[in-house]
Specification:
heterodimer; A: 1069 residues; alpha+beta; Immunoglobulin-like; 5-stranded antiparallel beta sheet; 47 helices; 15 strands; B: 165 residues; Beta-Lactamase; golgi apparatus (chain A); ARM-like (chain A); AP4_complex_esu (chain A); transport (chain A)
Chain lengths: 1069, 165
């Protein structure tokens, strides 16, 4: 039987009728042994659907199995319940399933929660009383149960987010734990902790934080954390990032997060992987209304995507454009959409797009001609699949008109003219809806066009009526138009002809029209009053209750006629006769039919750009911090209004140092005006085209202030303006405040408040300081001055480190770190070669770290490295600086795997794009896998310029990079000492300067980062650990000028390595 | 993004199809109720759409108001239909996780495994996804659950196979 059932499932899958076996599936589930039961349940869940009659027969089996003592049976029953279950039978099993929530086995608890979720979905009211049990499930000690309960919460919060605000804290905590990797490792997916759980939580948070500043406040931290943690280059992390970005843009905005999220979107959009690109576009589409500037940043990519071979990308791009449409770019965008429409064959896509075009056209039409023409295109391309709202809205717009009567008139005249022109072409087939629109407009407004004889119009309509492709519905429209026209002309041959023809038509409707027309023609006065001109908007009073028929009805009833039953009542009666057992409550079928009839198009999404203060300030802040990276993009765009402000800032940032080293600076100023003509000349024709397209597309996005300047202003004037702006800033350079004022007054609408501006200028000062340091030889002094506070700051780190650096000890000598104060000339040279020397991000600068050293460089790109010694790993910070004046794409940094080192997370880093003259950095956590005194880690960086270029580099890492002091007490030391097996003993000679024992220990402590546990007489104990946590203990003793070292460690190689380091240190000092 | 859109937002897989490069259906699971005729039509349509796509395009296709997310593993296509608002990348990973589960259960899974043990493939799917939503993300637990019931199955089988006389 079991085999039969399996085969039956297979047959069903192949598409054969197998409903005869359904009952056997239920029987198998009911009567079979475990093995058969399982197949039976499976077959039931595959064969039957929610409302299948046979499902009732399953209830008893389920109840029986739920009470079974066999776990597997309970599991199977719960699984099937959470897939399909008849709604009306829920009460029968509900108490049993509730009991299961307390079951000792996690899997049963989890499945019980799933079953309850299913119940919640099909009958939310029935599980209302157990909401507190859901809470218990949320706090379950098993993560699986908790995860299952999140489904319920997501659903409940979706329906009513305000009721669950108090749980925000819990969700945040859970997410924090998940992100922090506190869950057991088997929830990991490709070493990402429980991604599905994360995403579920992110969605919940998004729903909770929407429009709620206070709740959003709670989740900022964890969102930031999630963004930060999702670093690995894998699909799943991108999925999480995507969700994160969505959440961040859904909740009450916080500028920092928005900024980070925007960066993330950049990563997506610029990715060479098509899937990621698509998601990036999707994210952009989602956020674009809040942050239109993002579109500006990615203009080029968007343009490229418009011509992408994959239709889904194209469509998403159009969706994106749809959301940034405004009065200025509407023509181009609609044109793009129409182009796509012409290629597309998918009905859904057409309906969707046609609706959007119509909406945009109505909203932003720049002039009448364009509007009518676009609508014509919509009707002819969209054909008959267009939603009936579109023609209706269009006609209403025509009829009701705008405020301006003159305008209306023109619009109507133009419409009539264009339709006449279209009808001129004899054999063209137009969609029915379009014909209907045409005939209505012609009928209504023919008289506005004075130079066309109504007779001509009538002939055209007449010929249309004779066409076979015209449906009878359209014919009715045409007849109505003919009637209207006829009422305003004295007598027409065509009309007479038409009446003659149609009076014998087989179509009763047309025949009726013809007769009506005939009679009306005989009574012109009546006709005139029936069809007044341009009265389509005047309200007609209609007696909807048909009260004038009351007498007739009463008479009918009096003669014994059955009383009238409304349509739905009749239908119900019919239905109930058809079905012996009707489980559906009455009235439902009617309700659903009504609602389906009423469902309209989505209400037009408001296209107003986020203009609330916070949104704006967020945008501004974002833009400001990114200024330097944006250069490339901006150059291509020439967006006035947006651009001068940035220029302003660049000028501000660089100007003070421009005086001492003007020529050197040329390469450094983000975008020297002098470079521009060359740039323009070298651009290929195609690029220019794209730029042009882009400038038309993205016009009017950046700011409201710049709007009037854009669009038509040619590049020459733009250039001029830019230059003058720089000049201006240079004049003003001494007075930063003046500058700010001018910036504020010039670009008032963009900068909401002056305080923000001030902050920005501070930021740029910071940048200047950093940039100044490597800039020129004149600046060495400056440089030193700049270093000083840095080293002051570093006094926070262990003094041994700083002393290391000062004494240039050998500790780092082999790691080719140039420590401090390279000779001025060298720096000068390096400055001219590499205008960009990166500095550490602030949060890392606090930590002990090495100098930033160059790894390798080419014409286009330079690599710098800095080691940061954190408590739990060695961080390699790699800076990739783009030295060119254009953006570098797809920069890929790869470390080769070695046996010695383990790179946490992934060995590669990708920078989708590095803007001109800017520095990107990535950080890699490192661990030492195999102990060695030092080893080389090599890698390469590849990037795309004209061709694929690859640069090799190598880094030397020493054992000491991975050694950290280990704090412990003397007693702990004693215990640990005894438990360790590998030991190494060695006597080394103490040099003369370290005559005292404590001095020697100091040296060791300082240079080797050992922790001095205790000193007892002439014996000392020290402890350290190799990351992550391999301890190594050192016992040392002096006797007769020798230092006896005794190492112990669980790792055999570690004492040897440390001994070597000790010897080296002692010899050098 | 507006209120209405957000409310409609659901994150549910509508159906999962497995089919071979030759267009033969290997597994189907529906999480929405549709008449059989409709299902057959949809399957035909989708198989055709996906097989005709070239390798270089993205793994996502617009289909009616849904989105198809598909991935090819050897000769088998795994295809999920999700809602427009859902996370496509995540769905790709759902597919991948399912393949991993199959792989773990069968040990180097191939198309034949699924043809000959397709009820097992269903069991695993049911353990992993319920009602179109991912339920058990722990690989270990999911496979363990299947194996546990398998084990019971074996013992019962052994028991049944004992000669009764």
């Amino acid at each position: 039987m079991k085999e039969c059932m399996v085969r039956l499932i297979y047959c069903e899958m192949l598409g054969y009728e197998s409903s005869f076996g359904y009952i056997h599936a239920i029987k198998l589930a009911q009567q079979g042994n475990l093995l058969e039961k399982r197949v039976g349940y499976l077959a039931v869940s595959l064969f039957l659907h929610e409302n299948h009659e046979l499902l009732l027969l399953l209830v008893n089996t389920v109840v029986k199995d739920l009470q079974s003592t066999n776990l597997v049976e309970v599991c199977m029953a719960l699984t099937v319940v959470s897939q399909i279950f008849p709604r009306e039978m829920i009460p029968a099993v509900l108490p049993l399933i509730e009991d299961k929530l307390q079951h000792s086995k996690e899997i049963i608890r989890r499945k019980a929660v799933q079953a309850l979720y299913k119940f919640y979905l099909i009958a939310p009211n029935q599980v209302q009383h157990i909401h507190d049990k859901f809470r218990k499930a949320l706090c379950d000690r098993d993560a699986g149960v908790m995860a299952a309960s999140l489904h319920i919460y997501l659903q409940m919060i979706k329906e009513n987010s305000s009721g669950y605000k108090d749980l925000t804290g819990s969700f945040v905590t859970i997410l924090k734990q998940v992100v922090g990797g506190k869950l057991s490792a088997d929830f990991n997916y490709h070493s990402v902790p429980a991604p599905w759980l994360q995403i579920q939580l992110l969605r919940i948070l998004g729903l909770l934080g929407k429009d709620d500043p206070r709740t959003s406040e709670v989740m900022y931290d964890v969102l930031d954390e999630s963004l930060r943690r999702a670093e690995i280059n894998h699909n799943i992390t991108y999925a999480i990032l995507f969700e994160c970005v969505q959440t961040i843009y859904t909740i009450y905005p916080k500028s920092e997060l928005l900024e980070k999220a925007a960066k993330c979107i950049g990563k997506f959009v610029l990715s060479p992987k098509i899937n990621l690109k698509y998601l990036g576009l999707k994210a952009l589409t989602y956020v674009i209304q809040q942050d239109p500037n993002l579109a500006l940043q990615h203009q080029m990519t968007i343009i490229e995507c418009l011509d992408h071979p994959d239709p889904i990308i194209k469509r998403e791009t159009l969706e994106l454009l749809y959301r940034i449409t405004n009065g200025q770019n509407v023509i181009v965008i609609v044109q793009k959409m129409l182009d796509y429409l012409k290629e597309s064959k998918d009905e859904y896509a057409i309906i969707n797009l046609v609706g959007k075009i119509a909406e945009l056209a109505e909203k932003y039409a720049p002039n009448n001609e364009w509007f009518i023409q676009t609508m014509n295109a919509v009707f002819s391309v969209g054909g008959d699949v267009v939603h009936s709202d579109i023609p209706n809205n269009f006609l209403r717009l025509l009829a009701e008109g705008f405020d301006d009567g003159e305008e209306d008139l023109q619009l109507r005249v133009y419409a009539v003219q264009s339709y006449l022109a279209l009808l001129e072409e004899e054999d063209k087939l137009y969609p029915q809806k379009f014909l209907q629109v045409m005939s209505w407009v012609l009928g209504e407004y023919f008289s506005l066009v004075t130079d066309v004889d109504p007779e001509v119009i009538l002939t055209k309509l007449h010929s249309l009526l004779k066409k076979t492709f015209v449906t009878s519905e359209t014919k009715a429209w045409i007849m109505a138009a003919v009637t209207k026209i006829a009422s305003h002309t004295s007598c027409s041959k065509t009309v007479d002809e038409l009446i003659q023809e149609l009076s014998s038509s087989l179509d009763t409707c047309l025949r009726q029209y013809a007769f009506e027309l005939k009679h009306l023609c005989e009574d012109k006065a009546l006709m005139k009053s029936l069809f007044p001109f341009d009265a389509s908007c005047t309200d007609l009073v209609v007696d909807a209750s048909l009260s004038f028929l009351d007498g007739f009805v009463a008479e009918g009833l009096g003669h014994g006629a059955a009383p009238y039953k409304p349509h739905h009542q009749r239908q119900e009666e019919k239905l109930s006769q058809e079905k012996a057992l009707n489980f559906e409550p009455y009235g439902l079928s009617f309700a659903s039919s009504v609602s389906s009839g009423v469902t309209g198009r989505q209400s037009p999404t408001g296209l107003s750009f986020g203009s609330d203060t916070s949104g704006n300030s967020a945008e501004t802040g974002h833009k400001e911090t990114n200024t330097l990276k944006l250069e490339g993009v901006r150059k291509l765009w020439g967006k006035e209004g947006y651009l001068p402000k940035k220029e302003n800032k660049t000028g501000k940032g660089n100007e003070p140092q421009a005086v001492p080293c003007g020529s050197l600076l040329a390469g450094q100023v983000g975008e020297p005006p002098a470079l521009q003509p060359d740039q323009g000349a070298s651009l290929s024709e195609e690029d220019k085209e794209k730029q042009q397209l882009a400038s038309t597309l993205f016009v009017g996005l950046g700011s409201s202030a710049g709007v009037s300047l854009m669009g038509k202003a040619d590049t020459a004037t733009q250039k001029f303006k830019r230059k003058s702006k720089i000049n201006e800033t240079q004049h003003l350079s001494e007075e930063a405040s003046d500058l700010q004022n001018s910036a504020a007054s010039d670009f008032g609408p963009l900068l909401d408040t002056v305080p923000i501006n001030t902050e920005d200028s501070e930021g740029s000062m910071h940048v200047r300081l950093r940039k100044a340091s490597p800039c020129s030889s004149d600046n060495v002094e400056d440089n030193l001055a700049f270093e000083t506070p840095q080293s002051l700051r570093k006094s926070m780190l262990d003094d041994r480190l700083s002393s290391n650096r000062l004494s240039q000890s050998s500790l780092f000598a082999d790691s080719n770190i140039e420590i401090f104060q390279p000779s001025p000339s060298a720096q000068c040279e390096s400055a001219s070669e590499t205008p960009l020397v990166p500095s550490l991000p602030e949060e890392l600068e606090e930590l002990p770290h090495s100098e930033v050293v160059g790894l390798c460089q080419s014409d286009a790109l330079a690599l710098h490295l800095c080691k940061v010694w954190t408590d739990d790993s060695l961080l390699l910070i790699v800076f990739v600086s783009n030295k060119t004046t254009s953006a570098l794409c797809a920069v890929n940094l790869v470390f080769e795997e070695t046996e010695h080192f383990q790179i946490l997370e992934s060995t590669t880093s990708q920078f989708p794009v590095i803007e001109a003259q800017s520095v990107e950095h990535c950080q890699k956590g490192m661990r030492m896998n195999k102990v060695c005194t030092q080893a080389i880690l090599s890698g390469s960086v590849g990037y795309q310029s004209e061709m694929e270029t690859r640069l090799e580099f190598s880094v030397t890492l020493s054992l000491m990079d991975f050694i950290r002091p280990m704090e412990m007490t003397t007693e702990d030391f004693g215990k640990l000492w005894l438990s360790l097996s590998n030991d190494v003993k060695q006597n080394i000679k103490m040099s003369s300067c370290q005559d005292s024992f404590s001095a020697a220990l100091d040296t060791l402590q300082r240079k080797l980062k050992l922790h001095r546990v205790d000193i007892i007489g002439n014996e000392g104990i020290l402890a350290c650990q190799l990351l992550p946590s391999v301890p190594c203990l050192l016992h040392c003793r002096t006797h007769s000028g020798m230092l006896a070292l005794w190492f112990r460690s669980p790792c055999a190689a570690l004492p040897d390595g440390l001994l070597y380091q000790c010897q080296k240190v002692m010899e050098e000092s | 993004m507006n209120e209405g859109q957000l409310r409609q937002q659901t994150w549910k897989i509508h159906f999962i199809l497995l089919f071979s490069r030759q267009g033969k259906l290997r597994l189907q699971k529906w999480y929405t109720t549709l008449p059989d005729k409709e299902k057959k039509k949809i399957i035909r349509e989708i198989v055709q759409i996906i097989l005709s796509r070239n390798q270089k395009t993205s793994s996502f296709v617009d289909w009616k108001d849904l989105k198809l997310v598909y991935k090819r593993y050897a000769s088998l296509y795994f295809c999920c239909a999700i809602e427009d608002q859902d996370n496509e990348l995540l769905t790709l990973e759902v597919v991948h996780r399912y393949v991993e589960l199959l792989d773990r259960y069968f040990g180097n899974v191939c198309e034949l495994d699924i043809i000959f043990n397709f009820e097992k493939a269903y069991f695993i799917l049911d353990e992993f996804i319920i009602g179109g939503e991912v339920q058990e993300t722990s690989k270990k637990t999911a496979v363990k659950a299947i194996e546990e019931s398998d084990m019971l199955q074996e013992t019962v089988e052994e028991y049944m196979n004992k000669p009764a006389f």
